[in-house]
Amino acid sequence: MPDFMLDNLPDNQGLPASLFFESPEEIYCRVFREIKPRTALPELRVEFCQFANANCFIKLDGGRLEVRMSDLLSGAPAPVMEALAHILLGKLYRQPVARVYSNRYRLYLNRRDMRRQAHLVRQIRGRKFVSGPVGEHRNLEEVFEGLNERFFDGLMGRPQLGWSRARSRSLLGHYDPSHNAIIISRVFDQEHVSPGGAGVRDVP
């Protein structure tokens, strides 16, 4: 492993040299024995999958331990893979996860190159539900163009616009940079709610 990759990982001092020669399966076996030393090691399968993000999953089914990780992590350094093994197995067996592992994994995902790669993968693989701007009572294109002219002299490029599937009052809207889309809660698509949003407090 290049030295710069180790330098970017916190608390890497004292890592056993053998760690860097272990396969992902061997790392998970070792971490399993650390977490469950009195439990027989189940059959283990570790798989990298083409997910649309950096999601990872673990489950114990019929005495078989299955780990599915995003292929974004297929080239992750061994200490990062070890940290993820502690996180996933800790959650599976409801064991506390040491902060060093959480910090190590989070730092790796927040690297600029990883964020750029994850963003690209979401664009290519991700599916985004965009209903379109026309609702039952409001047209988001008209609202956008009005705000664009008022505050930005009409210079802002228009993203994809759509209404949410449900009338959520907790998530009123969000911007998805991977698909350049703004999704607004249907709670605003009501006749008695003003386009400026002032009437949202009156929604039952």
Fold and architecture overview:
The protein is of the alpha/beta class. The protein has 6 helices and 6 strands, in the order ααβββααααβββ. The strands form 2 sheets. A 3-stranded mixed beta sheet has the order 1-3-2, with helices on one face. A 3-stranded mixed beta sheet has the order 4-6-5, with no helix packed on it. 17% of the residues are buried. The chain is 34% helix and 16% strand. It is elongated and about 65 Å long.
- Overall spatial form: elongated
Spatial strand sequence of the major β-sheet:
1-3-2
Radius of gyration: 23 Å
Number of helices: 6
Looking at how many chains there are and whether they match, the oligomeric state comes to single chain
Query: What helical percentage do the residues reach?
Result: 25-40%
Structural class: alpha/beta
Largest sheet: 3 strands, mixed
Q: What does the average pLDDT come to?
A: 82
Spans where pLDDT lies below 50 across 5 or more residues:
1-11, 197-204
